[in-house]
Amino acid sequence: MSFEINNLFREGLPAPVAARFSGYPKYNFVGGHNDNDGIPIDDFIAAMTRSLKAEGKNLATYGLLSGFQGYMPLREHIAKRLGRTAGMKDGAENILMTSGSLQALELVNDLLLTPGDVVIAEEACYVGSLGRFARSGVTCRGVRMDEHGMDMDHLADILSEQKIAGKPVKFIYTIPTVQNPTATVLPIERRTRMLELAAQYDCAILEDDCYADLLWEGERPPAIRALDNAKEGEGRVIYCGSYSKTLAPALRVGYIVADWPVLSQMLSLKTDSGSPALEQLMLAEYCPTHFDDHVEKMKSVLKDKCDTMVSALEENFGASAEFSRPKGGIFLWINLPENVDTVRLAEIAAKDGIGLNPGSIWSTNAEKYRSRFRICFGHPDHETIREGVAKLADICHQEFGVPLRSGNTVR
Amino acid sequence: MSFEINNLFREGLPAPVAARFSGYPKYNFVGGHNDNDGIPIDDFIAAMTRSLKAEGKNLATYGLLSGFQGYMPLREHIAKRLGRTAGMKDGAENILMTSGSLQALELVNDLLLTPGDVVIAEEACYVGSLGRFARSGVTCRGVRMDEHGMDMDHLADILSEQKIAGKPVKFIYTIPTVQNPTATVLPIERRTRMLELAAQYDCAILEDDCYADLLWEGERPPAIRALDNAKEGEGRVIYCGSYSKTLAPALRVGYIVADWPVLSQMLSLKTDSGSPALEQLMLAEYCPTHFDDHVEKMKSVLKDKCDTMVSALEENFGASAEFSRPKGGIFLWINLPENVDTVRLAEIAAKDGIGLNPGSIWSTNAEKYRSRFRICFGHPDHETIREGVAKLADICHQEFGVPLRSGNTVR
């Protein structure tokens, strides 16, 4: 009798990955990959060299002598910068470094959620968060959105419905600044209203701010946590951020900002003996002197790529593709005519090396968003963007008859 | 009414951490910290510089173009080295890089365990694994040990008992080479027997080999996974290793070696978008040319510290402290007279800045090991070891009357 280790696996596992990794698609319009030329390699080398010379011997100690909350000089820098850019009043003691902001999301869910709980999110929402809610066995209710993000009246309705139903909402998950996938920016009035509603219905807020540094048009509103800080710190808002979108996703460095009641409990859930050291050492050395300039450069690179993507879409899809021009970030959220099922479009496009994210998967309402898709422009170069969008239009025409004509003809 | 976020926490959380980190004890005889002077800083800088120059731009892509299994050149190095040092036949395709070997332990538990399951471990066992089993809601049965590690007849008895009771064992967790905390090395005959028993009782084996590189006396036996490989790869053994003990714990780099049925399922559980990149880049550059030499140096440093610790214990505790001289690793496992409760000893010693690990916590049988403790010698320098052990003997004398006399007098 031959042994099958699968027989020992627990029940209820997610599906295994289907195949070994074989490279990214040529037209890589998915995922939060960055611009290859945007990695400041020489500055990274210089920062790493300086920090290893100064602090390298402390690699011998778990937590680099800063404990498992994370390397203190980096936490100090983050606190200072969030004060300046997001209006937050938190000190380094309120920051917990994580292995990417995905670990931050895991920790918040692990802290707050029990199967059967209810959370609220924007109706179009980051698939990684939706997947985590599903795995936690909780219901995620989607709030309608307009060009400024979450609709506060609908939020109020859902909070009220859930209270009446005896299943009050645990927390509101929001990406208020450059929302993923819609790129909307929630105005300060709505942020204030969200806090009021959270207070009225006694729930927490998880503010996922990982794109906020990439806003290139208009002023960055204060973080929701900053507005909460101002009310003598009710501690209702758990904030998380990341270096993935501004610097490099492969680094896997994120952070949580919260009060000690939250952090002390999270530290007992974060059983990994600290997040990796080299990234923290390097960032603590690099960021105070270079990060602001880098972000400005990155925004200019991304805005140019966004312009190329917009032109390519207009040229190849014409009126068939509806979208708002983003004020920041790395993606567009596109609406195609209603006969287009973007899940099917993505399947066919994948065969031609084009990756895109179907709207039905990136939302709480598959039917409503079946003709939407997210397309990312951060990683591919301008030529690849133009080529890929033209190819996609051809595929879309062949399969769904839209845009009306294919090839390099006017549509 | 003031808001208390604690009211939203889920039930069943572990206790929060009691206090903010305020530094390690002066006499730091706990934890897997390394020798500060052992960090090869210049080599790290050189390796980091070379790898960032060559591969830095790929930081823009999740997974460094190697996918979420981990950076391919590092996996290739690990596979090759495990072939040479542990007799393993696995290629890079069987390796999954993890954020420390603690994440490896988490993944194995998440893959295999359901509350109510039964696992088996050495009776004296790494507290981090015991804690994980407790949090997973499983029963961990301890196997008796002698100077060569796990007693195979007792293992057979437990496997049989559990089968008869209708609760067959899911897996055997073992640290076969330089066991933590006993520093025993399981001979090849017992490894073979363990595999036979696992086959007979249809369970898996989790082989935690994170100290194996630090064996300085005697030959390193083949890994249990290597013996399984030889049987045409039943795939029964999941192997994990780490760079924490040989290079630097703050790096947080570990790995799992297993077959695709295990790895494909683990990849769907490892939702962190890959383990951090800088460590993987640096190690892939550093290790092929430097790691073997470094390990030889490290073993010599550790053996010297071990000798100092042994002398200090003999001098200060005399016959009151029973222990075997380790053949490798970073700790001793000491037995004091039975009137000594080492939990209490640790509490009192902590006030004088001495950290040690009580045996009742590092075992599946608190009562049997109440007079044992683990003392680590990897991090403190020779003078600190001598001072700390003398202080500890004084404290022990004052509190428990052993060793018989205190101060710098013969005991």
Please state the oligomeric state of the protein chains shown: homodimer
The largest inter-chain interface, given as chain pair and residues per side, is: A-B, 99 and 100 residues
Structurally, the number of domains of chain A stands at: 2
How many strands appear in the DSSP assignment of chain A?
14
Query: What is the N-to-C succession of helices and strands of chain A?
Result: EHHEHEHEEEHEHEHEEHHEHEEEH
Low-pLDDT sequence parts of chain A: none
Stated plainly, the CATH topology of the largest domain in chain A is called Aspartate Aminotransferase, domain 2
Biggest beta sheet summary of chain A:
7 strands, mixed
What does the radius of gyration of chain A come to?
22 Å
User: What is the number of helical segments of chain A per DSSP (H or I, 4+ residues)?
Assistant: 11
N- to C-terminal separation of chain A? 64 Å
- The average pLDDT of chain A is 95
User: What top-tier CATH class of the largest domain in chain A fits best?
Assistant: Alpha Beta
Q: Would you give an account of this structure?
A:
- The structure is a homodimer of 411-residue chains.
- The first copy, chain A, is an alpha/beta fold and 411 residues long.
- Chain A folds into two domains: 23-39 and 292-400, Aspartate Aminotransferase, domain 1 (Alpha-Beta Complex), CATH 3.90.1150; 41-290, Aspartate Aminotransferase, domain 2 (3-Layer(aba) Sandwich), CATH 3.40.640.
- In chain A, 40% of the residues lie in helices and 13% in strands.
- Chain A contains eleven helices and 14 strands.
- Chain A has helices spanning 41-55, 72-86, 100-112, 127-135, 152-164, 188-200, 224-230, 260-269, 277-317, 342-351, 382-400; strands spanning 27-28, 95-98, 118-122, 139-143, 145-146, 149-150, 171-174, 204-208, 237-242, 254-257, 331-335, 354-355, 357-358, 372-376.
- In chain A, strands 2-10-9-8-7-3-4 form a seven-stranded mixed sheet, sandwiched between helices. A three-stranded antiparallel sheet of chain A has the order 11-14-13, covered by helices on one side.
- In chain A, helix 7 (224-230) links the parallel strand 8 and strand 9 (237-242).
- The longest helix of chain A is centred in the C-terminal third of the chain and has 41 residues, at 277-317.
- The first copy, chain A, is globular and about 65 Å long.
- The termini of chain A are far apart.
- Chains A and B meet through helix 1, helix 3, helix 4, helix 8 and helix 9 of A and helix 1, helix 3, helix 4, helix 8 and helix 9 of B.
